[in-house]
């Protein structure tokens, strides 16, 4: 684990514990306990946005990947992002490996995950702006409307960074990165990797040129974010704090925006809890209900993420055994032309 990941994870965990102590661990846990076994169907419901996100990947590479395979790939990536201390970069890397192991060319898999991740982030910004619009309309008769401007500025900053990332992709992000590495480490021969990086850049640009597929991927991601609002609505119903669909949309859109802004913190630990603690009063919820909502989401991540990591481990072992068997297989004997 890199030092930055250790530091961010430690700070996030400290914030997580501090928020629980501040609000009263017993109070928060008793609120969460009201949901009981109701968290199981909520976890199952999360499969709906998961499949939509998988379809957003599959539509970009429809000829090379089935929806079933894309769903398993997305499940693995989400599990890694949620539970492993790799920030938000570990999930995409795991997804590329999964697609490569199932027969897709590595450069095409890397391009597809890069493009789909970018489009999902764009959809998340649109979703956050939708939540801000709802907040702006309702702020006239709600307290804490001073949060509207900071959230808008934060969303604008994230949008600017995402646009810069998109421009970098159009100008050959992977090739540029490997050329930089080759200059920093001139002792190694980077020519083969540079050729692969340039190939990935070419495929990325080709995918962006497929306007229908790009639009379909974006819309599927946006629908996935919106459908995820139902998870917040169901959790609050289960813990005894029912809210309207509009309030659930506000909590989910801005809560996910806060979580996304903390991409460098593994699992956004502590940041997600602080975000819901901040947003809860906007819809008339007590602070402990906001923390209980976040913990319910953490429970769902465990219920789906742990099996996802187990599947990742099993598939990785199976792939390595298959590679080892192929490497150790004897070469076919050459035919002696003289005997024919």
From TrEMBL:
Keyword list, A-Z: Cell membrane, Membrane, Transmembrane, Transmembrane helix
Subcellular location: Cell membrane
GO CC field: plasma membrane
This protein's record includes keyword Electron transport: no
Domain of life assignment: Bacteria
Membrane disposition: Multi-pass membrane protein
Regions that span the bilayer: 40-61, 109-135, 147-168, 214-236, 276-296
Protein name listed in UniProt: Membrane protein
Organism: Pandoraea eparura
